[in-house]
């Protein structure tokens, strides 16, 4: 079957009253939580509903699908971007023909697309290969940034440490990044994220790292940010924006690609760390969980 998400949802609504109770509960959950259904594996979905995995397989067959995964495809397609390239740019043209806000949104959206595309175009595979080798072969990989760029460094270190446990965000506390580099050596590395105006703390961190012979990976809006700074790998990113601050969309795209390569390099060990992290958070109640959907009884 090739039903769209809308067609499938309409079919569920129209036929739910004729389903057995267990299938009704599953159908109601899918209608109420389409995003979760699109992402969760079958056992997680079954546990949230309070039914067996077999119920979801039976529902898929009842709806004319070969199995659970086939039933989930339209919901997954609604959440991912795999097909965006085939959708064209007509949506931008449509907005440009609207009112002043529509026209402004079209300009902002086009600019962000351009920023990301240019940044990723400049992300050459040979640089990626070198950066991944530096990171994965290091004992510790320090990540530093300040002010607005700090959010990017926090995210990269938060996710990246599950791919490579040696990734550390610096500064870790209220001091300077140089405090955390005092015992660093050539077996470590430094990742720096910075755009104009460049932070003095960031420049000092790079100079200290160079004196201590750490390989340096730089994500910045220029390949030359200060005298005496010679990174081993530079990923130049576009930061052009139509407002008063730099756009970080391009830098984020580069970091996301790096994370993908690091998780590929980490293999099964990285996947196990992610699973263990998720389990620890779930066991400690770190994530909010909705109450179980009510059981539906046949009249």
Per-chain topology:
Blueprint: H1 5-15, H2 21-32, H3 34-39, H4 42-49, H5 53-62, H6 68-77, H7 90-96, H8 100-121, H9 125-137, E1 141-144, H10 150-163, E2 167-170, H11 177-180, E3 189-194, H12 200-211, E4 216-220, E5 233-236, H13 249-283
Parallel strand pairs: 1-2, 1-3, 3-4, 4-5
Helix pairs in contact: 2-5, 7-8, 8-13, 9-13, 10-13
Number of contiguous helices: 13
CATH C-level label of the largest domain: Alpha Beta
Order of strands, main sheet, comes to 2-1-3-4-5
Number of domains: 2
Report the sheet with the most strands, covering strand number, pairing sense and barrel closure: 5 strands, parallel
**CATH third-tier fold name of the largest domain:** Rossmann fold
Helix fraction by DSSP (H/I, runs of at least 4)? 40-55%
CA(first)-CA(last) distance:
31 Å
The overall strand count is: 5
Average pLDDT taken over every residue: 90
Shape label: globular
Strand content: 5-15%
**Could you state the order of secondary-structure elements as H and E?**
HHHHHHHHHEHEHEHEEH
The CATH superfamily of the largest domain is Glucose-6-phosphate isomerase like protein, domain 1
* Radius of gyration over C-alpha positions, nearest whole angstrom: 24 Å
Fill in the keyword field for this structure.
5 strands; globular; alpha/beta; 13 helices; Rossmann fold; Arc Repressor Mutant, subunit A; 2 domains
Short description:
With 299 residues, this protein is of the alpha/beta class. It has helices at residues 5-15, 21-32, 34-39, 42-49, 53-62, 68-77, 90-96, 100-121, 125-137, 150-163, 177-180, 200-211, 249-283; strands spanning 141-144, 167-170, 189-194, 216-220, 233-236.
């Amino acid at each position: 079957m090739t039903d769209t998400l809308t067609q499938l949802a309409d079919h569920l609504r129209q036929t739910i009253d004729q389903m057995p109770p267990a299938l009704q509960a599953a159908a109601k959950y899918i209608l109420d939580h389409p995003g979760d259904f699109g992402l969760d594996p079958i056992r997680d979905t079954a546990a949230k509903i309070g039914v067996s995995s077999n119920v979801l397989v039976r529902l898929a067959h009842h709806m004319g699908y070969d199995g659970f995964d086939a039933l989930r495809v339209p919901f997954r397609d609604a959440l991912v971007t795999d097909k965006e390239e085939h959708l064209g740019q007509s949506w931008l043209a449509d907005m440009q023909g609207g009112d002043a806000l529509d026209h402004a949104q079209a300009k902002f959206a086009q600019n962000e697309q351009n920023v990301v595309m240019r940044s990723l175009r400049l992300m050459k595979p040979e640089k990626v290969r070198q950066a991944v080798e530096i990171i994965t072969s290091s004992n510790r990989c320090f990540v530093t940034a300040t002010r607005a760029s700090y959010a990017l460094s926090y995210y990269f270190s938060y996710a990246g440490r599950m791919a490579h446990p040696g990734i550390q965000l610096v500064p870790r506390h209220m001091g300077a990044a140089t405090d955390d580099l005092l015992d660093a050596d050539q077996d470590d590395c430094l990742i720096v994220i910075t755009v104009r105006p460049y932070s003095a703390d960031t420049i000092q961190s790079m100079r200290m790292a160079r004196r201590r012979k750490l390989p340096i990976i730089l994500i910045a809006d220029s390949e030359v940010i200060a005298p005496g700074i010679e990174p081993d790998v530079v990923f130049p990113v576009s930061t052009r924006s139509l407002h008063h601050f730099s756009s970080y969309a391009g830098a984020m795209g580069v970091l996301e690609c790096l994370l993908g390569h690091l998780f590929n390099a980490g293999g099964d060990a990285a996947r196990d760390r992610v699973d263990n992290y998720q389990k620890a958070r779930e066991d400690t109640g770190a994530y909010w969980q909705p109450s179980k959907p009510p059981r539906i009884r046949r009249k």
